[in-house]
Predict the 3D structure of the following.
Amino acid sequence: MKNAPSTDECVEMYRKMIVVRSLEEKLGELHKAGKTRGPIHRCDGQEAVGVGATAMLTATDYVASTHRGHAHYIGKGLEPYKIVAEIFGRETGYCEGRAGHMLMGCAAKGMIGGNGIVGAGIPAATGMALSIQIQKRNDVAMCLFGDGAAQTGICHESMNIASLWKLPVVFVLEHNQYGLTVHHTGQSSVADLSVRAAGYGMPGAIVDGNDAVAVYRAVGAAVERARRGEGPSLVEAKTYRMVGFSTSDMGGYQKDSDIAAWRARDPIRIAFAALKDMVGEARLAAVDQAAKAEVDAAFEKAFRDPFPAFAPDPASAPYTEVS
Amino acid sequence: MALLRYAEALNAALREEMVRDPNVFLFGEDIGTYGGVFKVTRGLLEEFGAMRVRDTPISEQTLAAMAVSAAMTGTRPVLEIMYSDFMALTIDALVNQASIYEYIWAGQVRLPFVLRTQGGGGVGAAAQHSKSLDVFLTHIPGLKVVAPATPADAKGLLKSAIRDPSPVVFLEHKSLYNLRDDVPDGEHLVEIGKAVTARAGTDVSIFATSRMVHESLSAAAVLETGGISAEVVDLRTLRPLDLAAIKASVAKTNHAVVVNEGWRFCGYTAELSATIMDHAFDDLDAPVERVAQLDMPIPYSEPLEAVVIPTAEKIVAAARRALA
């Protein structure tokens, strides 16, 4: 089946998930040590969605991400070193330290980009798909968004327009059970948000968001459909946010039993179990070690990099240059 | 040169830019089959087809956000928002998206889109279809905001706006669409950020945009009968503001009246007044006089609306105060 990832692709997804997890854990440690600035939104436990959904995309396909985008960034091919440099405000970061962890973009890789306004990536991806359609390109736009973002008005408007115009966009709903600190049962009138796809006349599917291969298959089918010009799809990936909303979250509202149950279904553990007989534990151990070493090196290098020098923004000037 | 209505001049600009660049496309409510509620897009669906001229659902928030992301991915969208009052729905796309990316992504993307809308009162459209929300837009670093007063400037500024690599909000006025005047044929570009002297004078400078330029010209004619020579400067662009033109005019007349159809408190006249104080204080012989909308919702009934909206009479009175 064309939508099934090859063994090498599965190993690569496994590697990327470890990169993301290592990044998140290291950021958590640095936050505790008081060495981070601003809120950081970790995606521990959700790696299979971002990594699996983006694995079949090319650099000319676009991804609109969220405030919790590290797995999307790594999935789309961004380098850990430049991500870390951006998070720590360095000149060598993807945006020269101007954007930070939440708003990062890398146009060359089609990651445009992180977004701190919940739901804003949904019309953004829809507009990118419109642009692709008008230019008669064969690319697709993908939006990863959460169950919280699914409750916005722009989500409804965007899905209607995308389906009306058969835009090449894929809506990947990363259902992590929480919008801010409120459980989805306190936010949504329905448990399965993908049922809404029927209201827009587009296919809707539910997939195990902790199984990267399952995510790849479901999203891959939606990507191919979009490339064929048949319009958008909604894929709802069920997962769980293992850590708080952000590094400033005091916690206390997630049930220990839920956390334990989802920890047993850790996406990295699921990928390991599926791969160990196919490629052998030794290869996976080597991948694991290399991924962690890459992240450690990224932090070490980024911390040695200089901060950017301030320069005013000419495009923001209130007055025309005096001639 | 052709005698065109303001709406026809805008239509010519859109048509010429669509012919010139296949990545320019139009979308908005009623702009296709119907040709736009003010007929600015008349005939363009027939000429360019439904791929590039799109009627849309009534979804302003999403349409504005789509203009931003379409612009960063290779096209040049021109979005029409039917009334400037509805711009309130587009603010997130402008203040949290459009205005930030060129800077925060360190030049990785450009955002060449135009958001056209029309505002202003005087026609009994009531409190949700008459506002002048210029400052909602001019307050945002990273946006350009233009407001042409004449058919020729409407054409020249719209062509420049479409070619601009950055976001431009294009403010039209519902009372100007039928204004007829000479418009240069073909390639006619008006530089964004440049004011023009609509009428030269020596005693007092009146700074205005859009329909208020015409009210100011009427005021200048009245003032002339009283022996006062008023200069009317059409700013044309609200942001970035042509500071050099303002300074030059104030240096000549030593008196300033600033006019804007929007609300007074924290309004555009407040910024103009502060700008003149900051940059031309030594040239002033009297305090700057402001003419703006009363700080209240716009009433429907004609005599009530007339009290609230700035008029030539109010500009005349302000000029006389400045010279008293």
Notes: Chain A has a mean pLDDT of 96. Residues 22 and 292 of chain A are 6 Å apart (CA to CA). Chain A touches chain B through 47 residues (CB under 8 Å).
